[in-house]
Structures are given as structure tokens and as C-alpha cells.
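[audit] Reproducing an earlier prediction to check determinism. Same input, same settings, fresh worker. If the C-alpha cells differ from the archived copy the diff job will pick it up downstream; this log only records the rerun itself.
[audit] input (361 residues):
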Amino acid sequence: MASIPETMWAAHISQFDQPYTITRVPVPRIRPNELLVKIEAAGYCHSDAQVLHGEMQSALPMIPSHEPVGVVVAAGDAADGWTVGDRVGILNFKNACDQCAGCRATHRRWRRLDARFCERRETSGFHHDGAFAEYMAADAATTVALPDSVSFEQGAPLLCAGATVWGALMKARPFLQPGDTVGILGIGGLGQLGVQFARALGYRAVAIDNRDESLQLTRQAPASLQPDLLVNSSHDDARDHIFRHTDHEGLAAVINCVDSLAVNAWSLELLRVGGVAVLLGLPAQRWQFDSYLLVFRELVIRSCYVAGRDEVEEMMQTVHRHGIRSQLTVVGCQEISGVPERYQTKAFRGRLVVRMEGEWQ
């Protein structure tokens, strides 16, 4: 393993709504519970755009991106279970305090600490330095192994997009039986993975979007992981199409990967009696749902922040066994300043990943 330098290249948000600045900064010093990871690839998603626009009220300057994968190059004395050379993915919640109300609640509920709900947790790429850099400090407790069968480029989106939509399916799972039909609403970075996850878990899948180009992303997957039905939600007969497909019962679950109030409200109309809707969007306004549908069809509404470490480890093994893949646009680190603009183009589909090898400038 090569020696660790004292400084590294990194992209920074120095001002909101301005291009990233590329500078050299000190390599992070790790605490006893932490790993130093050489970043091989990192993703960019909608949340990164929100951070750049100042919607997360992040303190600046800050290194963006919360979808990192790489190789462990150093481990703290208390970073149990990891060795130099391990291929890993880093979840964006880390360093739980083990004292706050959130930490106490997770101990009572799950008999273990869960950094997702710590009131003092660090959130890489949101309020603390993230992954658009050569190196990053990771909490050993919220780091997961990246299977050898998964490339760094494919691995990066799994740490947020994958973990989020997998977590949503885990929230729906108690209400489902094998062979039930699950709708994935919004076929972007999350939705294309959601369809494959649903099929891999033994469910039938309906892909729903208002753009045919987005729906076609699902046809890039292996045949066994493709949806059973494609539905363009802008068509007048979209709901009828879904009900005919489900013998007029409706969907057992719908995973909402969009933040439109109207679309999420409409999604409840697609559910069978006792069906479950899992919400992943973060609209500026409050959700609005039909109380008649909720009460008289006994529907369930759940939400999902992001999957926890144990669930992400299960997800990684599912990805390995079934060959689940994202449709990617991969750019080099020398193109990192243009990533936000590229993401905003109307023609962009799938996931955007930065490969960290090569010259930064």
C-alpha cells in the first residue's frame, strides 16, 4: 500500500449556487473508531443539488457528495472488523454520541446503536465533509463491505439511492407476500434500482413514470429483473391499466420516489385494500392525502429516511447474487466542477458518478 500523503485534492462548496472550487487540503486525521478511505468513486444525486442551493443550510466551505466507495488505507485502534485493503462503501451518517434521546430510543427498539437517529450524528456531504476528495474519514460502525463483483462505479449509487429505495422496500415488506405486485413510482436513480430490488425479492413490479424515456431505463436490466408492466402516468388510462394487471385488486405497495404532492396523492388510488405507500420525497409543502381512501381502504402510509447498516449489508449481498446494476454516466475527477450542471440537463437519466483516478486539474 502506498504511503498516505499529507494533502489531497478536494472539491468544495465555497458559495451556494456557485461552481465547486478545487483546492488542496490536509488529508483527514482519523479518530480511534474511524477508517481512512481512499475514494475511488462518488455519486451525485438530487440531495447534492439541494446542498449546493443552500436548502440544507450547510456550513461552508464543505466537501460535497454522500455516495462514496473506496479502499481502506488506515484504521484507528478501535475500528474493529476492518483491515487495510478492504473495499468499502461509506454511509453518510456516522459517529453517534450514544447519549442523546435518539440513541437511547434505538437501543430500546433494536437493542443496538443506530447512528441514523443520533441527534449529534455527522452527515457527510450534508453538514460535514463528504466524498468529492481523494480521501475521506469513515466511521467503522457505518461502513459496509463492497462485494468484489460490484465495481466502484456501480457501488457508489448504492450508498444513497440504493440504500434509500431498499429501505423503503424493507418498510413495505411486513405487509407483502411473495408474488405480490409492487409499484415503483418515479424511474430515476432510485426507481431503476427499486424495480430490480423488488424483482430480486420475489415480487412482481410495475414501473410508473410520466416519461417513456425514463421507463425504458428499466429495460437495461437483466430480463429476470425487468418490470412486469410499464405505465406512463400521464396517460388517462394509467390507473385502469394497473388495475387490469392486478385482477382489479390494485397494488400491494407503492414506493414513491418523487416529491410531487399530486402524484403521491394519486398513488393511493392505485393500492389494494390494506395496501402500503412508502414516501421518499421531501417536498417543500406538507403532504395531502384523501382521508376517505385512507380510512375506508385501511391503507398504510410509511416513510423511510435511509436503510441502516445491517439492511445495507443485506442489500449488497442481493446486488451481488442478482447482478443488479444502475444505468450510469461516469465522469473523471477533472470534470467534477461541471457535475451539477450536467445533472440538471433535461436529457440526463440514471445516476451520475465521478471516478476519482487521474489528474484533478
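[audit] rerun output stored. Observation attached for the diff report: The two ends are 25 Å apart (CA to CA).
[audit] end
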